[in-house]
Write a sequence for this structure.
């Protein structure tokens, strides 16, 4: 069984990292190569809908499957790592494409 | 009795649309993050979960007068600022629709689907001459402050809105 991530430690805050580097820390080749098992379109939706829809989708998925969430509310950059830290699902990364954020989450085992 | 970080209580004291939206937004987000959430509705906050019907009853003249002025129902709630006799709330609702934000009428059943519990305060009900029939069927229970304090004492997050 995969160990859930610690709320305080492992998941970095995209907000503070952005401040330091001037760009988004998540993204890059490893995220681009991910093949999601399911995708949820939250473009045009605001808080709390992306998180509510993520939570609903992940409940219907099998352990270890990858969920892609597409949103255009920049709050998702901080909210999805926070949601993962609280629920124990794995935050895989985020890619910004044409003003949309593609976020990838792996469902925890068990 | 130990504190549970995965439990949240929210006291909804205010009967305004904007404050109720904030309360339900946090409740629904927390429930989506796996937390057990209980909302306690008291005083003006009772209006958020009241049925939309005629003026409230009550045995005493002042209760009936209050009932005429203090109508319940989530769609009737004013804004806490810039309500302008209803114009402001209409504009705010139009803006929320324009940006596809869920209305309070959508947030309440959403909260229920996510497992959020609703408790109405019996003391405020007695004061305002309201009975259990005056509330929407989603309300789980009717209780007093001790129920809230007991639950709050073992919750990691307690809000008063």
């Amino acid at each position: 069984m995969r160990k859930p991530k610690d709320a305080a430690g492992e998941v970095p805050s995209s907000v503070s990292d952005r401040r330091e580097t001037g760009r988004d820390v998540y993204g890059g080749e490893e995220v681009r190569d991910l093949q999601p098992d399911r995708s949820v379109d939250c473009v045009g939706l605001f808080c709390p809908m992306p998180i509510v829809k993520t939570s609903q989708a992940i409940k219907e998925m099998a352990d270890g499957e990858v969920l892609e969430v597409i949103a255009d509310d920049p709050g998702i950059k901080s909210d999805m790592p926070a949601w993962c830290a609280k629920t124990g699902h794995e935050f895989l990364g985020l890619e910004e494409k044409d003003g949309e954020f593609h976020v990838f989450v792996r469902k925890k085992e068990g | 009795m130990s504190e549970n970080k995965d439990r949240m209580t929210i006291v909804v004291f205010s009967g305004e649309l904007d404050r109720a939206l904030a309360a339900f937004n946090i409740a629904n987000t927390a429930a989506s993050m796996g937390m057990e959430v209980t909302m306690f509705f008291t005083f003006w906050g009772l209006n958020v979960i009241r049925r939309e019907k005629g003026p409230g009853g009550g045995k005493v003249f002042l209760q009936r007068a209050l009932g005429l002025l203090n109508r319940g129902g989530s769609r009737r709630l004013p804004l806490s600022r810039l309500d302008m006799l209803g114009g402001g709330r209409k504009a705010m609702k139009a803006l929320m629709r324009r940006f596809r934000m869920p209305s309070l009428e959508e947030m309440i059943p959403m909260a229920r689907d996510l497992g959020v519990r609703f408790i109405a305060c019996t003391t405020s009900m007695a004061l305002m001459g309201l009975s259990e029939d005056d509330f929407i069927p989603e309300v789980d229970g009717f209780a007093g402050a001790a129920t809230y304090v007991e639950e709050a004492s073992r919750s990691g997050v307690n809000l008063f809105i």
Observations:
- Chain A has one domain: 18-106.
- Residues 20 and 78 of chain A are 15 Å apart (CA to CA).
